[in-house]
Amino acid sequence: MMNLRKRTREPHVPSPNLPHLPYDVVAMILSFLDIKQLAQSAVVAKSFRDCLKLGQLLDFKQPIFKKLVRKRVYVPFVGRIIDQHKGPKIQSLKLWFDPINTEEHWAMVAGWINKAAQKGVEEFDFDFYYGPQVFLLTDEIFQIKTLQILRLSYCDIVLPEPETNFAVTGLPCLRVLSFGNMDIQNMTVVEAILKACSKLETLELLHCFFPRYLKIDAWHLKNFKECKLVTCPKIVEVAVDAPNLMTLHYSGPMVVFKYTNFDKLTDCIIDFKPNRVYYSIGVYKLDQLMYDMSNIEVLTTSSRLLEGLCPRGSHGENTIVNFFCFSKLKEIQLLMEGSRYCGLFAIASFLQKCPSVEKIHIHCRGWFRTDNVISRSSRPGGFTWVLQQQFLVKRGIGPCYPNLKVVKLTGFRFAPHEMQLLIHFLVTGLSLETVAIFLPSPRSVNGPFKFMDETRLNQYFRPAMASPKARIRVFEHFQDKLFCPSKHPTKWHSRP
After folding, report:
1. Do both 315 and 429 map to the same domain?
2. % of the chain exceeding 90 in pLDDT
3. What gap in Å lies between CA 275 and CA 163, rounded to an integer?
4. Contact 146, 124 (CB under 8 A)
5. DSSP letter at 429?
6. pLDDT tens-digit profile of 196-220?
7. What is the pLDDT of residue 248?
């Protein structure tokens, strides 16, 4: 008879009881939660109900509060929370609503700002989107000495008269300044803030209307390291004087950049959009811009920049001589949507200036699939296209990439010009390890396209691979962020 082993139960070890904490200590701990988490904690015990009045993070921009805007109960709810606040400090106040009763809401928001300023507020984030009238804020918001982060959108600043004598007496600790969707024809506000805030680190100007000539004078700011300019339509020239600038992000129409010193610049996004009015490429002095940005390590750019830098002769002769070289560039991301005549020739001509590149990410979505007003000869298979490819092979433009390891091709539809790009990297990548192909999303595909699976691609292109470690991998479109994500997101300038 089989003997069954008797199971022995381990003795129960009681868990140590938590020490009884005073109510003041518990309230202080819970005050560091945001307003949504505090409301959830108030349901746990009766003693936690008053903790909702002690919260320091008053973030009313969360999706759960945005539902209240549609029901027209957002403003009364926020007003009741702020009026009943009994805590010693308000660390941040974030608002997101459409001011309908303009005069009434002006007075309420002014009272909220004054109460938060009395309790040492450190962050303001106001987004008054699409109101019937422009929401007006007084200059008192620039006199708060404890403020560190200031984000304003869809509003206007009322300056005292005369405006030329406006000066900022507060904001000694301001680190981040962001203006979005504002009409700032008078640069007095920006100039006064840059002059007074010695600790400013980041400046964001998103979808604002500025004069034609924008000047950012930050030569005296030792901590100024990041500047973002997004879709400012009236600007034709940007002058930047910031010797300590390390990050520059620009998205919008082509403009002329004038700068003093970009020696410390390492992170850059230059996303040029097509201009409404055509100007000669030489007007923008792109070659000089690239020469002064030669120390960058990460770059994201659009096809418009490559079109402005590549030779455009009828037989591929060098009509523009490029003297720049990105010797420190490790990662580059190319946005090909809306390209006019940017093909393999323009890409290879630009990448030959990047001898140390290790990762290349090319977004193929919209590449030669738009109805631009250009000559048909510049499209794949056209006369100019064929001449440029012949010149590329004849002159050997685009030498081997000794350090290239990863190539990502997003929105790849196996079109002829995309297959030529794939072959180019397989032949020239001496240390290439992975070529990741991401199929287009179903929404972006208008019709059928040819598809090759991963096994067939590796078997077909194995003789042409310069690196024995090279491998082609095929992914779905939603796996882009999981495999070797890029440092720069494609929607870096979108506001919540």
Report:
1. yes
2. 22
3. 33
4. no
5. B
6. 888 999 999 998 888 888 888 888 8
7. 92
**CA separation for the pair 471, 131 (Å, rounded):** 54
Range of the domain at 182: 56-199
The answer to whether residues 356 and 495 belong to one domain is yes
Integer Cα distance of 44 and 322 in angstroms: 67
Nearest to 178 by CA among 139, 205, 141: 205
The total number of structural domains in the chain stands at 2
In this structure, what token pair is assigned to residue 122? 């450190």
Q: Tell me, yes or no, if the pTM score tops 0.85.
A: no
Residue 250: half-sphere exposure toward Cβ, Cα within 13 Å: 21
Question: Do residues 377 and 330 touch, judged by C-beta distance below 8 A?
Answer: no
Residue 201 makes CB contacts below 8 A (sequence gap 6+) with 175, 176, 223, 224, 225, 226
* Structural domain ending residue among the three candidates 142, 175, 199: 199
Rounded to whole angstroms, how far apart are CA atoms 190 and 215? 10
Alpha helices by DSSP H, listed for 399-448, are 416-428
Q: What is the distance between the alpha carbons of residues 476 and 454, in angstroms, rounded to a whole number?
A: 12
* Cis preceding linkage at 162, omega within 30: yes
What would the two tokens of residue 148 be?
A: 């560190």
Residue 44 lies inside a defined structural domain of this protein: no
Are 355 and 482 contained in the same domain? Answer: yes
The verdict on residue 277 lying in a domain is no
Whole-angstrom distance, CA of residue 405 vs CA of residue 407: 7
Where among 160, 182, 199 does a domain terminate?
199
Q: How far is CA 7 from the centre of its chain?
A: 60
Looking at the fold, whether 309 and 442 belong to one and the same domain comes out as yes
